[in-house]
Write a structure and sequence with these properties.
The chain is mostly helical. The chain has 5 helices and 2 strands, in the order H-E-H-H-H-E-H. Helix 1 packs across helix 5, helix 2 packs across helix 4 and helix 4 packs across helix 5.
Length: 132
């Protein structure tokens, strides 16, 4: 259930970021490119982004732990931008998906995606039942 919520929130965050033209982040829908295909593309890209963040992001964050300490956590923005760029590279091989115009715009887009994920993740997170 958590993964599905994460995918939907990622898809929404990617859609919001793609609406900002200055960030040069675009979503290319499945053929023929109607609304349903666009939504399915957003969900697929959201799922790939969640998998990349979970698998590759965790490994990179463990390896880069000394850099986190050295830069007081600022390297996390660059790592998140790299993971967004990696997702764009993976989906571009399919002929649909995410495209990022420039790496540093991708870093800014990743910051916005992180903020949206934090807000909606806090709201939609399943609450643990309290014992009496």
């Amino acid at each position: 259930m958590r993964f599905i919520i994460r995918v939907v929130v990622n898809a929404f965050a990617l859609w919001v970021v793609s609406l900002i033209p200055a960030l040069q982040v675009d979503i290319t829908a499945f053929a023929p490119g109607e609304t349903l295909q666009f939504v399915l593309t957003l969900l697929a890209v959201g799922a790939i982004f969640a998998l990349v963040n979970t698998i590759i992001g965790t490994v990179i964050k463990i390896v880069a732990f000394p850099l986190y300490i050295l830069t007081l956590g600022l390297i996390g923005f660059v790592i998140n931008g790299f993971l967004l760029w990696l997702t764009a590279w993976i989906t571009s091989g399919f002929g649909w998906g995410l495209s990022v115009g420039h790496f540093w715009w991708g870093v800014l887009a990743a910051i916005i995606i992180s903020i949206i994920n934090a807000v909606f993740g806090g709201i939609l997170r399943p609450q643990k039942k309290q014992r009496r």
